[in-house]
Amino acid sequence: MPSRRKSAKNSASSQKWLNRQSKDIYVRSARGSGHASRAYYKLEEIDKRLNLLTQNSWVLELGAAPGGWTAYIESKIDVNKRGQLIVCDTRPIQATAGTCVIKGLYGDPATEAKIEEKLVSGNLDLVLSDMAPNITGVRITDQAASIELAELAEEAAKKWLRIGGSLVVKVFQGDGSDSFIKKLKTYYSMIQVIKPRSSRAQSREIYVVGQRFLGGS
Ligand SMILES: C[S@@+](CC[C@H](N)C(=O)[O-])C[C@H]1O[C@@H](n2cnc3c(N)ncnc32)[C@H](O)[C@@H]1O
Protein backbone atom coordinates (compact mmCIF):
# COMPACT_ATOMS: atom_id res chain seq x y z
CA MET A 1 0.00 0.00 0.00
CA PRO A 2 1.50 3.45 -0.87
CA SER A 3 2.67 5.13 2.35
CA ARG A 4 0.30 8.15 2.06
CA ARG A 5 -2.73 5.84 1.86
CA LYS A 6 -1.38 3.81 4.74
CA SER A 7 -0.89 6.83 6.97
CA ALA A 8 -4.39 8.14 6.06
CA LYS A 9 -5.79 4.76 7.09
CA ASN A 10 -3.78 4.82 10.34
CA SER A 11 -4.92 8.30 11.24
CA ALA A 12 -8.57 7.37 10.50
CA SER A 13 -8.31 4.38 12.83
CA SER A 14 -6.56 6.50 15.48
CA GLN A 15 -9.42 9.00 15.23
CA LYS A 16 -11.93 6.17 15.58
CA TRP A 17 -10.06 4.96 18.69
CA LEU A 18 -10.02 8.49 20.15
CA ASN A 19 -13.77 8.91 19.52
CA ARG A 20 -14.50 5.56 21.12
CA GLN A 21 -12.33 6.38 24.14
CA SER A 22 -14.08 9.71 24.74
CA LYS A 23 -17.51 8.00 24.73
CA ASP A 24 -16.51 5.00 26.84
CA ILE A 25 -17.99 5.36 30.36
CA TYR A 26 -15.27 3.20 31.90
CA VAL A 27 -12.51 5.33 30.35
CA ARG A 28 -14.24 8.47 31.65
CA SER A 29 -14.72 6.97 35.14
CA ALA A 30 -11.08 5.85 35.24
CA ARG A 31 -9.95 9.37 34.33
CA GLY A 32 -12.31 10.94 36.87
CA SER A 33 -11.09 8.65 39.67
CA GLY A 34 -7.41 8.94 38.77
CA HIS A 35 -7.06 5.23 37.87
CA ALA A 36 -4.27 4.39 35.43
CA SER A 37 -6.61 2.47 33.11
CA ARG A 38 -10.19 1.34 32.54
CA ALA A 39 -8.98 -2.20 33.23
CA TYR A 40 -9.41 -1.36 36.94
CA TYR A 41 -13.14 -2.03 36.55
CA LYS A 42 -12.62 -5.47 35.00
CA LEU A 43 -10.75 -6.76 38.02
CA GLU A 44 -13.11 -5.01 40.41
CA GLU A 45 -16.02 -6.81 38.76
CA ILE A 46 -14.28 -10.21 38.84
CA ASP A 47 -13.29 -9.77 42.48
CA LYS A 48 -16.75 -8.60 43.55
CA ARG A 49 -18.14 -11.80 42.10
CA LEU A 50 -15.55 -14.19 43.49
CA ASN A 51 -13.91 -12.51 46.53
CA LEU A 52 -10.40 -13.41 45.48
CA LEU A 53 -8.55 -10.78 47.49
CA THR A 54 -8.24 -10.29 51.25
CA GLN A 55 -6.06 -7.92 53.30
CA ASN A 56 -3.41 -10.60 53.77
CA SER A 57 -3.26 -11.97 50.22
CA TRP A 58 0.08 -12.72 48.55
CA VAL A 59 -0.32 -11.80 44.93
CA LEU A 60 1.66 -11.87 41.68
CA GLU A 61 0.35 -9.74 38.82
CA LEU A 62 1.74 -10.22 35.30
CA GLY A 63 1.19 -7.65 32.55
CA ALA A 64 0.45 -4.91 35.07
CA ALA A 65 1.16 -1.67 33.14
CA PRO A 66 -0.09 1.01 33.27
CA GLY A 67 -1.42 -0.01 36.68
CA GLY A 68 -5.23 -0.18 36.78
CA TRP A 69 -5.35 -3.67 38.33
CA THR A 70 -2.42 -2.80 40.58
CA ALA A 71 -4.40 0.11 42.06
CA TYR A 72 -7.38 -2.15 42.65
CA ILE A 73 -5.26 -4.83 44.36
CA GLU A 74 -3.53 -2.16 46.46
CA SER A 75 -6.96 -0.98 47.63
CA LYS A 76 -7.80 -4.50 48.84
CA ILE A 77 -4.62 -5.88 50.39
CA ASP A 78 -2.36 -4.40 53.05
CA VAL A 79 1.11 -4.45 51.55
CA ASN A 80 2.52 -2.77 54.65
CA LYS A 81 1.42 -5.62 56.92
CA ARG A 82 1.07 -9.23 55.88
CA GLY A 83 -0.02 -8.82 52.25
CA GLN A 84 2.47 -8.92 49.40
CA LEU A 85 2.07 -7.65 45.86
CA ILE A 86 4.61 -8.24 43.08
CA VAL A 87 3.81 -6.69 39.72
CA CYS A 88 5.64 -7.27 36.44
CA ASP A 89 5.61 -5.67 33.01
CA THR A 90 8.02 -4.50 30.35
CA ARG A 91 6.38 -1.06 30.53
CA PRO A 92 6.28 1.38 33.48
CA ILE A 93 3.70 0.60 36.17
CA GLN A 94 2.07 3.10 38.53
CA ALA A 95 2.30 1.54 41.98
CA THR A 96 2.51 2.60 45.61
CA ALA A 97 5.66 2.27 47.71
CA GLY A 98 4.85 -1.10 49.32
CA THR A 99 4.37 -2.85 45.98
CA CYS A 100 7.33 -4.65 44.46
CA VAL A 101 7.72 -3.65 40.80
CA ILE A 102 9.66 -5.91 38.44
CA LYS A 103 10.39 -4.37 35.05
CA GLY A 104 10.97 -7.12 32.52
CA LEU A 105 9.53 -9.57 30.06
CA TYR A 106 7.81 -12.45 31.79
CA GLY A 107 9.03 -15.64 30.14
CA ASP A 108 12.58 -14.37 30.22
CA PRO A 109 14.47 -16.42 32.87
CA ALA A 110 16.12 -13.25 34.25
CA THR A 111 12.70 -11.75 35.00
CA GLU A 112 11.50 -14.97 36.60
CA ALA A 113 14.63 -15.02 38.78
CA LYS A 114 13.93 -11.44 39.93
CA ILE A 115 10.38 -12.44 40.90
CA GLU A 116 11.61 -15.54 42.71
CA GLU A 117 14.02 -13.38 44.70
CA LYS A 118 11.24 -11.11 45.91
CA LEU A 119 8.76 -13.79 46.91
CA VAL A 120 8.24 -13.99 50.65
CA SER A 121 7.31 -17.58 49.94
CA GLY A 122 6.39 -19.73 46.98
CA ASN A 123 2.91 -19.99 48.46
CA LEU A 124 1.02 -17.27 46.66
CA ASP A 125 -2.72 -16.94 47.16
CA LEU A 126 -3.39 -15.45 43.74
CA VAL A 127 -1.68 -15.16 40.36
CA LEU A 128 -3.21 -12.74 37.88
CA SER A 129 -2.34 -12.12 34.27
CA ASP A 130 -3.74 -9.42 32.03
CA MET A 131 -0.76 -9.91 29.65
CA ALA A 132 -1.74 -9.17 26.08
CA PRO A 133 0.34 -9.40 22.93
CA ASN A 134 1.09 -6.44 20.70
CA ILE A 135 -1.75 -6.70 18.25
CA THR A 136 -0.51 -7.21 14.69
CA GLY A 137 -3.99 -7.35 13.14
CA VAL A 138 -3.24 -10.83 11.81
CA ARG A 139 -5.84 -12.82 13.73
CA ILE A 140 -4.05 -16.16 13.72
CA THR A 141 -0.80 -14.60 14.95
CA ASP A 142 -2.50 -12.58 17.68
CA GLN A 143 -4.51 -15.59 18.81
CA ALA A 144 -1.41 -17.79 19.07
CA ALA A 145 0.43 -15.06 21.01
CA SER A 146 -2.46 -14.71 23.45
CA ILE A 147 -2.51 -18.45 24.15
CA GLU A 148 1.26 -18.42 24.66
CA LEU A 149 0.97 -15.65 27.27
CA ALA A 150 -1.91 -17.43 29.02
CA GLU A 151 0.24 -20.56 29.19
CA LEU A 152 3.13 -18.60 30.69
CA ALA A 153 0.77 -17.35 33.41
CA GLU A 154 -0.49 -20.86 34.01
CA GLU A 155 3.10 -22.08 34.42
CA ALA A 156 3.81 -19.26 36.88
CA ALA A 157 0.80 -20.34 38.92
CA LYS A 158 1.97 -23.97 38.89
CA LYS A 159 5.32 -22.85 40.23
CA TRP A 160 4.26 -20.44 42.95
CA LEU A 161 0.60 -20.86 43.84
CA ARG A 162 -0.35 -22.52 47.12
CA ILE A 163 -2.72 -25.46 47.10
CA GLY A 164 -6.20 -23.94 47.22
CA GLY A 165 -5.03 -20.67 45.57
CA SER A 166 -6.50 -18.95 42.51
CA LEU A 167 -5.48 -17.88 39.02
CA VAL A 168 -7.05 -15.15 36.87
CA VAL A 169 -5.84 -15.15 33.29
CA LYS A 170 -6.79 -13.21 30.21
CA VAL A 171 -7.06 -15.11 26.96
CA PHE A 172 -8.50 -14.27 23.56
CA GLN A 173 -11.43 -16.46 22.63
CA GLY A 174 -10.57 -18.45 19.51
CA ASP A 175 -8.23 -21.22 18.41
CA GLY A 176 -6.66 -22.86 21.42
CA SER A 177 -8.77 -21.14 24.11
CA ASP A 178 -11.06 -24.13 24.70
CA SER A 179 -8.14 -26.52 25.05
CA PHE A 180 -6.44 -24.06 27.38
CA ILE A 181 -9.55 -23.97 29.59
CA LYS A 182 -9.83 -27.75 29.45
CA LYS A 183 -6.23 -28.10 30.58
CA LEU A 184 -6.85 -25.77 33.53
CA LYS A 185 -9.65 -28.05 34.68
CA THR A 186 -6.98 -30.64 35.54
CA TYR A 187 -5.34 -28.29 38.02
CA TYR A 188 -8.24 -26.38 39.60
CA SER A 189 -11.39 -27.80 41.10
CA MET A 190 -13.42 -24.78 39.99
CA ILE A 191 -13.14 -22.94 36.66
CA GLN A 192 -15.18 -19.95 35.53
CA VAL A 193 -15.02 -17.97 32.34
CA ILE A 194 -15.90 -14.32 32.79
CA LYS A 195 -16.47 -11.55 30.29
CA PRO A 196 -16.71 -8.44 32.49
CA ARG A 197 -19.25 -5.78 31.50
CA SER A 198 -16.36 -3.32 31.43
CA SER A 199 -14.58 -5.37 28.74
CA ARG A 200 -15.45 -4.05 25.29
CA ALA A 201 -18.05 -6.24 23.61
CA GLN A 202 -16.06 -6.28 20.36
CA SER A 203 -12.92 -7.51 22.16
CA ARG A 204 -12.28 -11.26 22.11
CA GLU A 205 -10.75 -11.13 25.59
CA ILE A 206 -12.20 -13.31 28.32
CA TYR A 207 -10.90 -14.04 31.79
CA VAL A 208 -10.52 -17.60 32.96
CA VAL A 209 -10.57 -17.97 36.73
CA GLY A 210 -9.27 -21.14 38.32
CA GLN A 211 -10.05 -21.58 42.01
CA ARG A 212 -8.95 -24.20 44.52
CA PHE A 213 -5.62 -25.08 42.95
CA LEU A 214 -4.96 -28.78 43.31
CA GLY A 215 -1.20 -28.63 42.77
CA GLY A 216 0.72 -29.07 39.58
CA SER A 217 3.65 -30.95 38.15
C1 LIG B 1 -3.93 -4.93 28.70
S1 LIG B 1 -2.38 -4.40 29.29
C2 LIG B 1 -2.56 -4.62 31.02
C3 LIG B 1 -3.43 -3.59 31.69
C4 LIG B 1 -3.33 -3.66 33.21
N1 LIG B 1 -3.96 -4.86 33.72
C5 LIG B 1 -3.96 -2.48 33.88
O1 LIG B 1 -4.89 -2.68 34.64
O2 LIG B 1 -3.49 -1.36 33.69
C6 LIG B 1 -1.35 -5.72 28.83
C7 LIG B 1 0.06 -5.59 29.33
O3 LIG B 1 0.73 -6.84 29.15
C8 LIG B 1 2.10 -6.55 29.03
N2 LIG B 1 2.81 -7.74 28.57
C9 LIG B 1 2.61 -8.45 27.44
N3 LIG B 1 3.46 -9.50 27.37
C10 LIG B 1 4.20 -9.45 28.51
C11 LIG B 1 5.25 -10.28 29.04
N4 LIG B 1 5.70 -11.38 28.40
N5 LIG B 1 5.80 -9.93 30.21
C12 LIG B 1 5.37 -8.84 30.90
N6 LIG B 1 4.37 -8.03 30.44
C13 LIG B 1 3.80 -8.33 29.27
C14 LIG B 1 2.12 -5.37 28.07
O4 LIG B 1 3.33 -4.67 28.16
C15 LIG B 1 0.91 -4.58 28.56
O5 LIG B 1 1.31 -3.56 29.44
Q: Based on helices, strands and strand pairing, what is the structural class?
A: alpha/beta
CATH architecture of the largest domain: 3-Layer(aba) Sandwich
List unreliable stretches of 5+ residues.
none
- The tally of helices reads 7
Bound molecules: S-adenosylmethionine
CATH T-level topology of the largest domain: Rossmann fold
What is the β-strand count?
Answer: 7
The order of strands across the largest sheet is 3-2-1-4-5-7-6
Keywords:
seven-stranded mixed beta sheet, 43% helix, 2 domains, binds S-adenosylmethionine, 23% strand, alpha/beta, 7 helices, 217 residues, Rossmann fold
Question: Quick recap of the structure?
Answer:
With 217 residues, this protein is an alpha/beta fold.
Question: How would you explain this protein's 3D organization?
Answer:
The protein is an alpha/beta fold and 217 residues long. It folds into two domains: 1-34; 37-213, Rossmann fold (3-Layer(aba) Sandwich), CATH 3.40.50. Helix content is 43%, strand content 23%. The chain is built from seven helices and seven strands. The chain has helices at 3-23, 25-33, 39-50, 68-76, 109-118, 139-160, 177-187, and strands at residues 58-62, 84-89, 100-103, 124-129, 161-172, 188-194, 205-213. Strands 3-2-1-4-5-7-6 form a seven-stranded mixed β-sheet, sandwiched between helices. It binds S-adenosylmethionine.
